[in-house]
Amino acid sequence: MTCPSTEVSMMGPHSQPERIDLATADDPRDVVHRAVACLAQGGIVGLATETVYGLVAGALHAAAVVRLRQGRGFEMPTPLTLLLRGPVEVADWVADLSQLGWRLARRAWPGPITLLFPAPASRGLADHLPAEVRPLLFPDETVALRVPSHRFIREILGLLPGPLVLSEAQGPDGGGVTTADPLVEMEGVEMVVDAGPTQLGGVSTAVRVESDRWTIVRPGVVEPSVLTRMAGMILLFVCTGNTCRSPMAEALCKMLLAQRIGCAVDELEGRGYVVLSAGMAAAHGMPAAAYAIDVVRARGGSLEHHASRQLTVELVRHADRIIAMTKDHLESLLDQVPECAPRTRLLHPLGEDVPDPIGSTRETYLRTAREIERYLELLLDEMGL
């Protein structure tokens, strides 16, 4: 299959794009390659994301991006969006990426969140885009980036030499287009891939990130409360079963942190802090040990509603600080997720183990809680909190 030329695509309103029904295609991989071929030749393709349908063009094809911009006619309150392959690519397009920006990128993507960053004078890879494309992608010195989770569009991205430029479609009611039908009537489109109704049925949440502040500029399928949690600094405590040491560390850290910043424990997430714990070999949903609940309560914390959780690679990758109880825990973490090394340490300030009190007396649990609390004070001091 070859993509119709630009001249053919601009013939007029009676020129219909090729429509491919993904559900009835003999081989979806063949459809991927046909879409890639069309884009590689400077074509415009209608595709589904997990949120809405839109028109995409290769960012390296100036004429296609210009046509995409000029022929929109269905403006959404975000600029043209660059679709990237993964979160790590955000640093290629945003100079001086803040910790908050990186935190949101790695937690939100792939997914239905569009991040808008200030576009500085030096834009990294953006400086290598065609001159005609740059002003279209950076209106008002802003760059909009997203990593979609829809499998089909991700496969296309994996086969192209550069990112895609997305222009989201808007229906008559002002909302996002969630089926392929309206795209077939649009001029200048070479191909429309019909993947059925979109999974989430609404627009992505658009979030402007400026240094250490974020603002929702377009409400979407991701709620503000979820974004608040994504944007928060995550402290993750790790032990074996997540019923003794790491839950005590979690509860005591919440208590100490709330005291230091002057808020209630249940207000920490709204202040930008998420404190969690997990176990390397934890069963799911187990309560904390009775003595752990008792000694934490005596020190002003709470473990009454604790439910154990298994440590996952995703949780490790999302955490800003990972604090292990023993050298064995630390080594296992680094074996499984070696890239977490800069964010991982032992709770003991001198690199010693925190002994496991499981099966011991209340006095042993009390000594462990005091020890953990002392080390947490030093940790928070070190973090400037």
* Amino-to-carboxy terminus distance: 60 Å
- Per DSSP E runs of 2 or more residues, the count of β-strands stands at 14
Query: How many strands, what sense, and barrel or not for the largest sheet?
Result: 10 strands, mixed
**What is the gyration radius calculated from CA atoms?**
25 Å
Low-confidence stretches: 5-14, 73-77
Number of helices: 14
Number of domains: 2
* The CATH topology of the largest domain: DHBP synthase
Query: What order do the helices and strands follow?
Result: HEHEEHEHHEHEHEHEEEHEHEHHEHEH
Oligomer: single chain
Question: Can you give the mean pLDDT?
Answer: 90
Task: Using the 3D structure, state the CATH architecture of the largest domain.
Answer: Alpha-Beta Complex
Q: What's the level 1 CATH class of the largest domain?
A: Alpha Beta
Helix fraction bin = 25-40%
Gross geometry:
elongated
Looking across the biggest beta sheet, what order are the strands in?
Answer: 1-8-2-3-7-4-6-5-9-10
Beta-strand residue fraction: 15-25%
Structural class call reads: alpha/beta
CATH superfamily of the largest domain: DHBP synthase
